[in-house]
Design brief:
Elements lengths: L12 E6 L6 H13 L2 E7 L10 H11 L6 E6 L3 H8 L3 E6 L2 H18 L2 E6 L9 H9 L10 H12 L2
Parallel strand pairs: 1-2, 1-4, 2-3, 4-5
The structure holds 4'-phosphopantetheine.
Family: Belongs to the bacterial CoaD family.
Pathway: Cofactor biosynthesis; coenzyme A biosynthesis; CoA from (R)-pantothenate: step 4/5
Subunit structure: Homohexamer.
């Protein structure tokens, strides 16, 4: 084989994994920053069968595609299984994760070390924009479900989808 595919190191690839139920402005900020650092960024919607989401995986993917359409090097996919297996299949050497606070660090470090031990994949932590350091999909779902204003926390397409899902309008 010739070209970039034969030399994994020539094309710099990274994955931004998550549940994205739904994608928030905090996620979008990390994806945008990763897209400036890497040639190809894969946004991987990981399937957690034990969690029934507010949005189906296909809906999450569609929303992420809409709100990342301006980034030519971002692709959105889903994966059922281990993140390290997804990385191996796509020849992705780096996982990019946002760190919101010190409290995120313990679990993120555990996952990073586990993943590195499994296949050698590296995890790079990006400090979240302080504007979004309190933000999570679960808080957005809860506040939106009770009628609170989340318009400053999610892209307009996500806000519209939340309104449709929660108020069926
Ligand atoms: O958005 P989330 O729910 O905080 O993302 C967590 C996620 C999906 C990135 C993490 O749970 C994950 O990587 N799941 C895939 C299954 C896996 O590889 N588990 C082992 C982690 S060491």
């Amino acid at each position: 084989m010739t070209g970039p595919e034969s030399e994994g190191s020539l094309v710099r690839r990274a994955v931004c994994p998550g549940s994205f139920d739904p994608i928030t402005n905090g996620h979008l900020d990390i994806i945008a920053r990763a897209s400036r650092l890497y040639d190809e960024v894969y946004v991987a919607v990981m399937i957690n069968q034990s969690k029934k989401g507010l949005f189906e995986v296909d809906e999450r993917i569609e929303l992420i595609r809409e709100v990342t359409s301006e980034f030519a090097n971002v692709r959105v996919e889903t994966h059922h299984g281990l993140l390290v297996d997804y990385c191996k299949q796509r020849d992705i050497p780096a996982i990019v994760k946002g760190l919101r606070a010190v409290s995120d660090f313990d679990y993120e470090l555990q996952m990073a070390q586990m993943n590195n031990g499994l296949t050698g994949v590296e995890t790079l932590f990006v400090p979240t924009n302080p504007t979004y350091s309190f933000l999570s999909s679960s808080l957005v779902r809860e506040v939106a479900a009770w009628g609170g204003d989340v318009s400053h926390l999610v892209p307009p397409q996500v806000l519209a989808a939340l309104n449709r899902r929660l108020r069926k309008d």
